């Protein structure tokens, strides 16, 4: 039951055996580390999702600065730069 609970919580299977053999302080430290890793992963995935949303919205901030400048010049000359 402990192994399943820890695995479901995000503890890598390779870490569960040693984790169950450690003292209370080591167990708490390990869980803090797992939580930190999960938080980092969540932040990474959130940033990826935000990038995808900006791409879907046509956000020019994702383009190189030179490309944005060119599009702005074209728009100023009367060209339509929206697909």
Provide a quick synopsis of the model:
With 83 residues, the chain is an all-alpha fold. It has helices at 2-8, 13-20, 24-56, 65-76. It is rod-shaped, with a radius of gyration of 23 Å.
Number of strands: 0
Q: Estimate what percentage of residues fall within beta strands.
A: under 5%
* Terminal residue distance: 55 Å
Q: So what's the overall shape?
A: rod-shaped
Query: Helix count, per DSSP?
Result: 4
Largest sheet: none
**What is the overall pLDDT average?**
84
Structural class: mainly alpha
Radius of gyration: 23 Å
Topology as a string of helices (H) and strands (E): HHHH
Percent of residues in helices comes to over 70%
Unreliable segments of 5+ consecutive residues: none
Describe this protein's structure.
The protein has helices spanning 2-8, 13-20, 24-56, 65-76. The protein has 83 residues and is mainly alpha-helical. The model has no long low-confidence stretch (mean pLDDT 84).
Layout of secondary structure:
Blueprint lengths: L1 H7 L4 H8 L3 H33 L8 H12 L7
Record keyword descriptors for this entry:
mainly alpha; single chain; rod-shaped; 83 residues; 4 helices
């Amino acid at each position: 039951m402990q192994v399943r609970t820890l695995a479901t919580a995000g503890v890598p299977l390779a870490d569960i055996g040693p984790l169950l053999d450690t003292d209370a302080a080591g167990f708490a430290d390990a869980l803090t580390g797992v939580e930190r890793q999960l938080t980092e992963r969540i932040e990474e995935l959130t940033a990826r999702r935000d990038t995808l949303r900006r791409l879907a919205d046509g956000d020019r901030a994702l383009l190189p600065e030179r490309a944005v400048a060119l599009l702005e010049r074209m728009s100023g000359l009367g060209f339509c730069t929206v697909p």
